[in-house]
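sanity check this chain:
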Amino acid sequence: METITLPNSDLTGSRIALGTWAIGGWMWGGTDEKQSIDTVKSAVERGITTIDTAPVYGFGESETLVGKALKQHGLRDQVLLATKCGLNWTEDSAVYRDATQSRLTQEVEDSLRRLQTDRIDLYQLHWPDPTVEIDEVAHTLQTLKEQGKIRAVGVSNFSVEQMNAFNRVCPLSTIQPPYNLFERDIERDILPAARDANIGTLTYGALCRGLLSGKMREDTTFDGDDLRNNDPKFQKGRFEQYLKAVKRLDDYAREHYNKTVLELSLRWLLDQDGVSIALWGARRPDQLDPADNVMGWSLDQNAKRDIDAILDECITDPVGPEFMAPPTRND
């Protein structure tokens, strides 16, 4: 597995990270404890040593399962453990942004307890909170770092201006934006700015909520509170466009590299200048099987141009991940 050392820290992990929102069940619905613990163990055995989670995934369930897995199999010292803060929720599970000092200082204690650890390697503000000054949030996380409760600080879903303002007060190791073949807004400003500021980029949504897995069809449906029921990409009209692109990309991957569209998508992501780590969600050990097929090869500029041409031809009505933003406390 390829490895990366995060800027502004001594943290080293794998370039593919296990993103445990899928394990927690908050976004996709449902979970199986033994299966989730086996997935974490399998990831580490395969060389995936970066694990990313958050309190809001399963409302504590994802962190609890990760903590159990690391404790049960004695893996804590073998991984770069990342989690997040700055979201809160009501009794009826309505999520909202909350980066107040009191919330963050309580969250870190709750996360340490659920994860069964004495320190969090990478602590990330999940979303900017417009009701709290960025300087105040940065000071709070810098204090937690000085106290030894966290080792490095990151932010997620920040604009360039917000990232730079935070970085002036508390040195950032990472920024975590959405990025994949279908969602590429960060190429305009965030990726270049992160490179210039020597901030690592830990990207989420590598397979665009399963679209780039190659396993979906026009009649695919999603149960209950599955996030994709509210995603414009999965609605009639756009869904067919994206599936057409996936089919063309899969054909290209098989013809030129003897790979699948899933493997092509992850390799493309890792080959983008400025991407440090790509998050990959998995709920079962077998969903990690393609990991080995992502390593040991790369895409040249001609291949990247071919891929862009396929996207331009197939997707005439693209849409980003804006629907995912949680409301602020004022909302």
Notes: The radius of gyration is 19 Å. The longest strand covers residues 150-156. The CA atoms of residues 7 and 173 lie 5 Å apart.
